[in-house]
Structure formats: C-alpha cells, structure tokens
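Thread amino acids onto this structure.
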C-alpha cells in the first residue's frame, strides 16, 4: 500500500515559515518531518520524501548579548553567594540556567 502526498516542497516551506517558532526550532521541525517520511519510505508506504528538498534557515534572528569580562565580574560581585555560584557554573561549563537549576547536590 502506497500513500500519495499532495503537498509540494514550496507548500511545506511556506508552512514551516508560518510557524511562530525560532529559526532553529523550525529547522528541528523540518528534520523531524523528514525523519518520519524516511521511515515511511523504508516501510514501503511512500515513494519519496517531500521534505528532503525543503530549505529552512536556522540562522539567529538577532545577535545574542555577550557580557565583557568586566561586566561579568561586576555582575558576580552584585549577586548573593548562591546565585554567584550558579553564574560561575553557567560561565565555566556552558550549561544553560535551566540545566544548572536542575542539578542535584
């Protein structure tokens, strides 16, 4: 049994662009859909992957603000001890704040 797909590459690109997500998140949506279609091909349900040729940019919308070493030093000095430790862990390990908050001591 084979499934006939009706959406074109351009329609899929437009749909992905319409998602109210960050560019990297839209790229992940595209990748998940491509993986699903590849699975359909392996199972013999589909003849082709309509997402394979879809282009999605994962470029950031704006440049992130980065503190200078002096700004970071001043920030740490103004924080209470617990938050200072979390700031140091984030800065020295590259962990995100959610990951640091999830640590168990």
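Threaded sequence (105 positions):
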């Amino acid at each position: 049994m084979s499934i006939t797909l009706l959406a074109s590459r351009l329609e899929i690109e437009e749909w992905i662009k319409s998602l109210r997500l960050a560019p990297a998140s839209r790229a992940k949506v595209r990748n998940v859909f491509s993986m699903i279609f590849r699975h359909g091909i392996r199972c013999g349900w589909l003849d082709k992957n309509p997402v394979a040729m879809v282009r999605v940019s994962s470029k950031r919308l704006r440049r992130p603000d980065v503190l200078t070493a002096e700004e970071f030093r001043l920030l740490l000095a103004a924080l209470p001890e617990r938050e200072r430790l979390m700031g140091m862990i984030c800065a020295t390990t590259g962990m995100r704040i959610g990951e640091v908050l999830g640590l168990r001591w």
